[in-house]
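# step 3/5: fold
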Amino acid sequence: NNFHQEMTPSQRNAIFLRKESATRLPFAEGAFDLAWASLATHRLEGERKHVLRQVIRTLRPPGQLLIATPLRETVVELRSAITSILQSDGESSGRALLEEDTSLASADEWQDACKKAGAVEVGVTRAQITIRLSAPMAEQRLFVDHVLPLWLGAENPYQKQVLSQLDEQVTSPADIPLHIACVYARRG
């Protein structure tokens, strides 16, 4: 809705926004020249190749797919940055979170998945930005709404507990690198 409101009237005539199931796209084969996706990759575990095949199917050769996605390195560095904080807490939930793996993919895994889905001319552009987090962590909306759910999952029952622990123990600003990628591919 926000994206649509920012478009000019001429853009609204050419750009159509729809939300569909990623595993069953209702569009004809070869319907589009360009597909852009900003994927919640932690929700695609086990379906990545199928979803990519669906999108590539809808592209008209040599249509292009662009994927903006967070990378696994973000969670690895986030975990590293707050490991000492959570380990200092005696509760088992904090320790268990340190051992969890993420379903986020690396840039190489995204490239490989695109190739396996039938894409050609697959490549990736990487970027890193750093966010500075300061106390209280619960008021850092980017962290709470977007970064932490990449690691913990959006429905994790420990999220409030982790935020509470961080709010109690973080006393100085922490710099957290965020790794993102634009993966691009063409339909052959």
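# step 4/5: annotate
The radius of gyration is 19 Å.
# step 5/5: archive (pending)
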